Amino acid sequence: MPTFHKLSIKNIKKEANNAISIAFNVPDNLKSTFSFKAGQYVTLKANLNGKELRRDYSLCESPKSGELKIAIKAVQDGTFSSYANFKLRAGDVLEVASPKGHFIFEPNDSKTKNIAAFAAGSGITPILSIIKCALEEEVNSKVILVYGNKSTEDTMFLNELLELQHEHKDRFSIQFVFSKQDKDDSIFGRIEKSTVNYVMLNQHKHIEVDAFYLCGPEAMIHVVKDVLTDNGIDKDRIHFELFKAAKPVEIEEKIAPTGNTTATITVDDETTTIEMSQKQTILEAALDEDIDAPYSCQGGICSSCLARLKEGEVTMRQNNILTEKEVAAGLILTCQAHPTTATIVVDYDDV
């Protein structure tokens, strides 16, 4: 279970239309708590209109920068994102949990390698952290970025990216893609099959890419993954994180669980046994019983509610994160998992 710490806001900077970055003051006694790997995120907690909200936001600085900084884009009907963009000020205090997440880049300067990143919209946030880390800590490696937005005005971190490109012009290249603006040296449209083929098979056909990092809406990620695998790229070299999933899939009524389950749940070394309906997700049942289970998005696109299924069986409404190997090893997203057996044993600590 994540522990939240109260951190004051150092500064807020406008990064694009309806998008800001927030840097936090981290006291010396919490420096180690908030150390992170490139690509990770933090969970924020706030009480708005009498309701507790938790949201995950990716870190956008390099691990060696000494900065704890996130970016938040205001989305339609987004209670927390609107509050952050239009209400928060420097000096305000938010509750922040320590960094986590499996979408990470770990530098190794003893080996020269090349990475390619595909990002759309606010998906640039963890990608920017990865790019900075690679450029800083792997001095011979090269980085390719394909970045899609509506226009330059909607492009988060535009100036910072251009500065990085200028500073590392022999190692860092950017291909902008704009869906509502036709500009020189950019591609007009969206990141689609032709975009991926053009960049990888024409622009950079002489570069052997060792790892691919994708972040953005689910549709974009599926397109890029499919094109890369069609071109012979091993799935193990493709890493991705969703920032927006498709509409959750409802479990078909004819196969939907309808019975009850005895669930034994362990969180922070405390084990509780509860009776739950199989129509509930494991997370819903745990929260109903005041079990302090970790969670954030509750939509299956973050890994905050990750746990290990030790006994029994479940069906997941959707899974956009876990690999086949992780599922085979018993990992489940408890916000998506419905039990299908009379008993289950779930351990949030063993992940």
TrEMBL record:
Question: Which co-factor is required?
Answer: FAD
Superkingdom is Bacteria
Q: Known InterPro entries for this protein?
A: 2Fe-2S_ferredoxin-like_sf, 2Fe-2S_ferredoxin-type, 2Fe2S_fd_BS, Beta-grasp_dom_sf, Cbr1-like_FAD-bd_dom, FAD-bd_FR_type, FNR_nucleotide-bd, MRET
Q: Which PROSITE patterns match?
A: 2FE2S_FER_1, 2FE2S_FER_2, FAD_FR
Question: What are the recorded GO MF terms, alphabetically?
Answer: 2 iron, 2 sulfur cluster binding; flavin adenine dinucleotide binding; metal ion binding; oxidoreductase activity
Keywords, comma-separated and alphabetical: 2Fe-2S, FAD, Flavoprotein, Iron, Iron-sulfur, Metal-binding, Oxidoreductase
Domain (2Fe-2S ferredoxin-type) spans: 261-351
Q: Which residues form the FAD-binding FR-type domain?
A: 2-106
Protein name as annotated: Ring-1,2-phenylacetyl-CoA epoxidase subunit PaaE
